[in-house]
Amino acid sequence: MIVRTTEEITGTDRDVADAGWRSKRIVLGGDKVGFSFHETTIQAGTVHEFHYANHVEAVWLIEGEATLTDLTNVVSYELGPGSMYLLNGHERHRIETRTQMRALCVFNPPVTGQEVHDENGVYPLVAVPE
After folding, report:
1. How far apart are CA 110 and CA 32, in angstroms?
2. Cα separations in angstroms, 87 against 12, 108, 130
3. Which ranges in 1-130 belong to alpha helices (H)?
4. DSSP letter (8 states) at residue 122
5. Do 69 and 17 form a contact (C-beta atoms < 8 A)?
6. Is the pTM of this model over 0.85?
7. How is 24-45 classified by DSSP, letter by letter?
8. For every one of its 130 residues, what pLDDT tens digit does the chain have, with 9 covering 90 and above?
9. Which residues are CB-contacts of 122 (< 8 A; sequence separation ≥ 6)?
C-alpha cells in the first residue's frame, strides 16, 4: 500500500512547475501500478498547448473555468468543476484558463517524473526503470 499527501510532495522532485502550470506527481511509473496520477494547477489567464503523442490522459477538473480546444478536430469545449476530458486519440489540445484551474490527471503509460514537454508540447516515452 502507498499513502502520500500533496504536502509531502511539495518542493520535491515530484513537484514540477513550468511557465503558468504546476504538476504534483502523486503516483509515478516507478510505483509499478500501470498509470501515473497527478494534481495539476494552471494559473488564471494563461494559454497552454499540449500533445501527448505517447500517452493517454484523463483529466477531471475540480476547480476553475477554462476553454479546451481540440486542435486536431478544431472543436472547443467549456470546462468547469466536474468536467472530465479524455485524450484517448492523442489529440493536440489547447487550454485557455479564465480562473485558476486545478485538475486530477491520470496518464497511461505512466510518466516517470523525468519527462519535460518538448517544443511540440509532447512528453517523450520514458521507460520505467526495472
Report:
1. 9
2. 28, 11, 27
3. 6-9
4. P
5. no
6. yes
7. EEEE-GGG-SS-EEEEEEE-TT
8. 999 999 999 999 999 998 899 999 999 999 999 999 999 999 999 999 999 888 999 999 999 999 999 999 999 999 999 999 999 999 999 999 999 999 999 999 998 877 666 676 667 666 666 6
9. 51, 52, 53, 54
